[in-house]
Amino acid sequence: MSLTAADSSGSGADQVLAEVWQLASKVEAQLAEALRTLADSDLEGADVVVQADLEVNRLRYLIEERVTAELAPGLDEERLHLLIAVLYVIADLERIGDHAEGIAKVALMLGRPPMRSLPASVLQLGAMVRAMLSAGVRVLRERDVEGARLLVGDDDPIDRLYDDIYGEMIATMTAEPDTVVPCTYQLWATHNLERIADRVTNLCERTVYLGTGRIEDLNVSTY
C-alpha cells in the first residue's frame, strides 16, 4: 500500500501527508545543493543552502502542530500509527536538513579557492548518502517494509568509507601540519554525511512501524 494522501480520510490527513512529502523533497534538494556547493566552492550557493534551512525548520514545526491538533481519544488505530510515525519522521528530516546546512557551512569555511581540494572519496560518500536518502523516502512513501529492512544494510559501506576517510585525513594532518584546518573542516562534512545515513535508518524503522504496527530496531550494524 502506498503512503499517499488517499490512504487516509479527511482533508487534514491529506494536508499532513502532502506537507511531509514537501519537507522530504526540500531536504533532498538541500543535501544535493550542499554537496554541489562543497564540490564547486560555490560560496554564494552555500549561503543560500544555509538560509534555506529556516524554511525546513518552519515546515517541520507546522506539520508537528497540525498532527498534535488532530490527536484525540478514539482516533482510528491506523491513523494514530500514521500520526505517531509522522512526528518521528519530520524530526529526522529536519535534522537531515541541519546536516546539509552543516555541509554548506563547511564550503563557506573552506573558501574560494578552497584551502584544500576535496578528496574524491568525500564526493563518493556524498553520492552514496544521497542515494540512501532518496531510497529511504521512497520506501517510506510506499510503506515498503522489506525494502526498508534491506536498505539499512547500505549504512555499513557508508560507515566503512567514512572510517577510511577519517583515517586518511588523520594521516595527512600528521604528515602535513599545514593541512590541519582544512582537513578538520572536511571531516566535519563527512561526519554530517555519516549522520544523515543514520537518520535514514530511522526512516526505515518508521516504515516498518507503519507497515506492521510494531517497532523494530533495524540499526544493527554488521560492520
What this model shows, in words?
There is one protein chain. With 223 residues, the chain is mainly alpha-helical. The chain has a single domain, classed as Methane Monooxygenase Hydroxylase, Chain G, domain 1. The protein contains seven helices and no strands. Helix 4 packs antiparallel against helix 5. The radius of gyration is 19 Å and the shape is globular. The relative contact order is 0.14. About 4% of the residues have low confidence.
Features:
223 residues, mainly alpha, Methane Monooxygenase Hydroxylase, Chain G, domain 1, 7 helices, globular
Helix fraction by DSSP (H/I, runs of at least 4): over 70%
**CATH fold name:** Methane Monooxygenase Hydroxylase, Chain G, domain 1
Q: Could you say which overall geometry the principal axes of the C-alpha atoms support?
A: globular
Structural class: mainly alpha
CATH architecture tag: Up-down Bundle
What is the CATH domain class? Answer: Mainly Alpha
| Total E-strand runs | 0
Query: How large a portion of the residues is in β-strands, by DSSP E?
Result: under 5%
Describe the protein's topology:
Layout: H1 11-40, H2 43-70, H3 77-110, H4 120-142, H5 145-151, H6 155-175, H7 180-212
Helix pairs in contact: 1-2, 1-3, 1-4, 2-3, 3-7, 4-5, 4-6, 4-7, 5-7, 6-7
Gist of the model:
It contains 7 helices and no strands.
